[in-house]
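hiii, so i know i said id send this last week but things got crazy w the move. better late than never?? heres the sequnce for the chain we talked about at the cafe, plus the structure i predicted for it. fair warning i was half asleep when i ran it
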Amino acid sequence: MLAIAAQIPSAEIGAGYFQETHPQDLFRECSHYCELVSGANQMPRALEVAIREAVGKRGVSVVVIPGDVALQNAADAPAPKVEGLLPSAPVVTPTSRELDRLAALLNGEGRVTILCGSGCADAHDELLALGERLKAPMVHALRGKEYVEWDNPFDVGMTGLIGFSSGYYAMLDCDVLLMLGTDFPYRQFYPQGSGVRIAQVDLRAENIGRRAAVDLGVVGDVRATLAALLPLLQQKRDGAHLAQAREHYGKARKALDDLAVGSSGKRLIHPQQIAKAISEQAAEDAIFTCDVGLPTVWAARYLAMNGKRRLIGSFWHGSMANAMAQAIGAQASFPGRQVISLSGDGGFSMLMGDFLSLAQLGLPVKVVVFNNGALGFIELEQKSTGFLNFGTEFRNPNFAAMAEAIGIRGVRIENPAEVDDGIAAAFAHDGPVLIDAVVNRTELAMPPAVTLEMAKGFTLYMVKAVMSGRGDEVLDLARSNLWR
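okay and structure toks below
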């Protein structure tokens, strides 16, 4: 993406002028390239560099232009050559020495687990061949989900705070961990101790060893590296580690799916049911976006990828209210594809004004609002550390009625029996739709492992809740998560 940001008149910069900011400073931390253009003669070269940086690094470039500079006559400059302006993605293969060392590590005795990230894009066939050769379970980080989990007999789920218990334990219970194209940042989820050897393959050398101490770092493109590595690997015969991890994954997957079943006659909708129904009824090539917080949890656990679908979120910066804005951009870029935003009520409310854009631009985005009346993930964090929830409750309107008032189809779902039909009707509508899914506020998104600190925190929360006259919250918590 190339963004052009306006600046105040250049003569006023630094004088506290009206609306003065320093965009080049504001955007520098979230872009690959960010420069201030001070004159018309600087613009052609700065623009070319910005485009190459954005395309080459698959990220964002920002060019900041003061208003008076933008009005200057354009400088004479030769037209850029397209081939030099739009560089192809690099294909980097490690040296034979590095490949031999990596093969020796993987061919040795010991159980191998593979951790996959977004760098595994376009390497699905190579991953399957690697899993078969090593009899190794594959764990994925959130950004690797859309590239790894589909049609994969070696997949054992995601790791991390919102991951699967099977993925968590497959990483901890191994002798060799092979990291492929991932910069998964949470160090507490990596295997600890000197007995585990770690090898990391990444295109960016600066990522090697950044999250865990590695025994072998290999700089290379994942697909090209695996293609060169596979002929060097011996076929492993012992599949006990893989079988154990897959069995654990099957139990974890069933437990999560059981939470997504609506109970007949009960008006309490579990958000898992909404997410699973969305996945089952969405198009084969649907583009999903998800807000930070609980919508990301439900997307990670219940949206099924197939190699054609995309999952987009603020998985690095963790910015709130990202889902609908990303859905608008995705739908404008791909008008022929179904785009579905999994929005939290907090995130949707923050950008409610942009909801009008769907009607004004005629974008048929389906916005699913998980209406639990709270900043749900923040509440979970407060409870897990022993605090009574504070400042997280919303007094939400009827979002579906609000949508109808501005000319967008609104569907409100308040009963588990209405979920499938309501989502089907919304997806069948030829135009933008808001699905107001009124879901359980006290649903717990359990992490793959509960630490002693978390247990202490929840115990302290419950004691405080009872003593402060909020014992009904404890009952709601139990009723939602234990007595099902």
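btw Confidence is low (pLDDT under 50) at residues 458-480. thought thatd interest u
miss u guys!!
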